[in-house]
Structures are given as C-alpha cells and as structure tokens.
Amino acid sequence: MFDTHCHLNFSRFKKNVEEVIKNAHAAGVKYITIPGTDIESSQKAVEIAEKYEGIYAAVGIHPHHVYEMTGHLNDIYHLSIAELEELISHPKVVAVGEIGLDKHLYKKTKYEEYNVSDEFFNLQKELFVQQLQLANKHHKSVILHNREALDDFLELLTTNWDPHFEGRMVFHCCEPKKELLDFAKKHNIFLGVDGDITYEKEKQEFIKEVPLSQLVIETDSPFLLPEPMRSRREFPNEPKHIPFIISYIADILGKTDQEIQQITFQNSRRLFKI
Question: Given CB 3.0 to 4.6 Å as the disulfide criterion, which of 97, 101, 210, 261 pairs with 60?
Fold first, then answer.
C-alpha cells in the first residue's frame, strides 16, 4: 500500500520516525510520500527520503506559511523559490507540494494576529503559480491544497494549466465539492482520500462519485486519525492506518479490500511516476 501524503517531517515524529516507518511496513504500507510545507520541512522530507527505501519527498510552500512573506517580498519570496529549485533536483523528490490556496482562519498557528488579508491572499496566488511553473519546468508531479478558496483555486489552475499536469496532480484531502470532482475528471487529476471519510457523511457520499482510476489514499499524518482510533483518542495518526481507510472505502463501494489496495497502489505509482 501507498500513503501518498504523510508528514513524517513534522516535529511530532522527530523522535520516532524510524519506528513509525517500521509500523507502516508491518501493516503493508511500503511506500510513503512526505510533502513539505515550507523550506525547512521540505529539506527534512528530503533528508528522511534519502535514508529509507520506498520513502519519497515533495518540496513546496503551503499557502498558510506564505503569511511570513507578507511585507518581505523581495527578501524571503525570491530566496524561497531559489531554495525550492535547488531541492527539486534531488532524485527522491517526486513532486512539488503541498501548494495551493487557503482562506481558513486558523486558531492554532505560530503566526500572531493571523488573518487572511488581500495582500496575504494575493501573495498566496503568486507563489502558487510560481510553484506550478517549477513543477512544469522540472517535470514533477503536484500535490494540491485547497481550503475555502474554491473559485480562485480552480481559476488559477485553469489559467495556468499545462498538458504536463494531466495525470500528475492530486487534490490532497479533497473537499467534497462537485466543482472539484468535475475539474478532476476533465483534467485527469487524482483525488486524495483520508481518514476523515470514516466519520464525515458528506465525504462518504462524495467518494461514490469518484472514479476508481483517480483514487489515491493518504493519512495526512499526524492529522485526520480515522475511526475507531479517533474515538479512542489514539493520536497521532500514522501511515500504518492506511488499511483502515481502505477497508472503509471498500465497504462503501462494495469492493474487497484487496481490490481497493491494488487499484490505489497502482494509481499512486502513476501519480508520482514511481
């Protein structure tokens, strides 16, 4: 099995990343992609990927972390693009991500007085486009993040679309929106499904409309713990929980666990060209 989105580069796993990978292997999850959310976590993703077979990295700047660039455009922005371009050439880097747009007002954040101003959101858009161009230039796949910014998100993707992206993009933790599904079907974009499908009714209905040929599975560890571990408060989430997500999806779709395992594993390899 393949966990297409797992933050082993986050501080929660700093002391036990090797144990978490061993647990994943024991559960049958032999492949993992670690996305970056800023320069530091992108570097960490590459460092971990270097050490372990079957572990791959993505490098990118999450829209939430664009916040620290506001007011320092020339200093931080251009330096970050240069650092990403240096990282992207590493052989274990399979994608640019996670990148996109985000209008959510985070209550838990390291940024004081966090708010989504016009300046901040416009800078998100600018960096999103720059990173799409980097992925195209270096022939990498793309891990996409969208939260509460659907119209702008799809508009930018449409404006900056390139044939290279077909079959090379994934809507990470895809919101259950018809507009996203329609766009994904039209452009052959994969849709990432996480542990929240085990408790969110809207996503349980949404997945019935997702083509199996475009479905990939992710944990978003250490977040989005699936049931029944969520009710038991067995935090943090880990890639070893992929089988629980697959089994739940199989039940919804009337398939066997093995069928969903095989389909999503092959889809994941196609997404990242592994």
Answer: 97
Q: What is the pLDDT of residue 74?
A: 56
109/99 Cα distance (integer angstroms): 18
pLDDT of the residue at 233: 97
- In terms of Cα–Cα distance, which of 205, 204, 201, 196 is closest to 230? 196
Structure tokens at 44: 């960490």
If one counts the domains in the chain, the total is 1
Give strand ranges (E) for the chain. Answer: 2-3, 31-35, 55-59, 93-102, 141-147, 169-171, 190-193, 215-217
Containing structural domain, residue 129: 2-272
Report if pTM > 0.85.
yes
- pLDDT of res. 79: 82
**CATH number for the domain that contains residue 169:** 3.20.20.140
pLDDT of residue 70: 80
Question: H helices within 1-117, ranges in order?
Answer: 17-26, 39-51, 78-87
